[in-house]
Design brief:
alpha/beta; five-stranded mixed β-sheet; Rossmann fold; 55% helix; 2 domains
């Protein structure tokens, strides 16, 4: 088998993948991994080709990473999805040569039915969960996302993930615990992976050393009431996820009911983004038309300049000829220019 690292964005999936890399699992070639940036200076440990494919899959179903698509039950068995499964297998085979792999992409949390078909369920999953208020605040800082939208997105990812992991071996841990007690949490993960036959003489200390205390930098301000006192459905889901901490040889969970506001909020975001992207497309079309008009005017200007230059040359030639004729008429040579 191999390992999938799943969880909501800004929840520590990169830190967790780094730990598993230190334990000796294959995260893919360094050249193919997403590079670090201000959001994650140490890198994302995310295969770029897989992330790009997942974005295309989400887009094909009317979504993207920050707008979970509306997926009907059994969607991964449809023809379009089967085409993506074939592409996912090709992408995976081009990235990993053995079973001792770690594949991490938060977008997969929304697409597990498709990836389970791709990998034929020969995977174990390590899920990392972060306090929803911290996730929402991190998204607000990085993407300018409204805190309530961040909470709704956190819930959408985790509700979908809990449903789609049914029957798989799963280890669930909390980001706060990983940062505050890295050796303890990494040792627990190692114990689970050993039980599933995923590791060969792992060094928990090496994995724990990848965790830096300053990773947990995007805590939320006490002045924001939405984050200090989230909606009941968010608190209930966070508590439920906390109760699932640890190893599950065969995962099953009855997901708490979503709040009445969660899906309408995501729908409103879908509509807004659709209108926004349509406006961007219209703007881009207008810019393209203006650039084309400008290019045409430049071409006309060049043509006119050529005509003017030719006319000037003709006038000069005419003047020169006329000067010769006048000079001859008066019996003297024309003055040299």
């Amino acid at each position: 088998m191999g390992i999938l690292v799943l969880g909501m964005h800004r929840s520590g999936t990169s830190a967790l993948a780094s730990v598993l890399d230190a334990l000796g699992l294959d995260v893919g070639s360094r050249e193919g991994l997403m590079r670090g940036d201000v959001g994650n200076p140490d890198g994302y440990f995310e295969v770029q080709s897989v992330a790009a494919l997942d974005e295309r899959i989400l887009a094909a179903y009317g979504g993207r990473w920050d707008i979970p698509p509306l997926l009907a039950p059994g969607w991964a068995n449809e023809v379009d999805a089967r085409n993506f499964v074939a592409e996912a297998r090709t992408t995976f085979d081009a990235t990993f040569s053995g079973s001792n792999f770690v594949l991490k992409d938060p977008r997969m949390s929304l697409l597990m039915p498709l990836w389970r078909q791709t990998l034929l369920d020969r995977v174990a999953v390590v899920v990392i969960v972060r306090d929803p208020a911290e996730v929402a605040w991190s998204l607000a800082l990085r993407d300018g996302m409204a805190p309530l939208t961040g909470l709704g997105l956190w819930a959408a990812y985790n509700r979908t993930l809990l449903t789609d992991l049914d029957g798989l071996p799963v280890h669930l841990c909390h980001y706060r615990d990983l940062v505050e007690r890295p050796l303890e949490v990494v040792s627990d993960i190692v114990s689970s992976l050993n039980a599933w036959g995923e590791l060969d003489e792992p060094d928990a200390d090496a994995g724990a050393q990848r965790i830096k205390p300053d990773l947990r930098r995007d805590t939320h301000p006490a002045s924001d009431p939405i984050l200090t006192d989230p909606p009941t459905s968010i608190r209930d889901l966070a508590a439920f996820l906390g109760s699932l901490n640890g190893r599950h040889d065969e995962f099953h969970a009855t997901v708490p009911q979503a709040g009445w506001w969660e899906e309408p909020l995501m729908n409103e975001r879908r509509v807004f983004v659709q209108h926004y992207e349509a406006a961007l497309d219209e703007r881009d079309a207008q810019i393209a038309a203006l650039l084309a008009d400008n290019a045409a005017l430049r071409a006309q200007g060049e043509e006119l300049r050529g005509e003017v230059s030719a006319a000037i040359d003709a006038v000069r030639e005419l003047e020169a000829t006329r000067a010769i004729r006048v000079a001859r008429a008066f019996g003297r040579s024309p003055a040299k220019p």
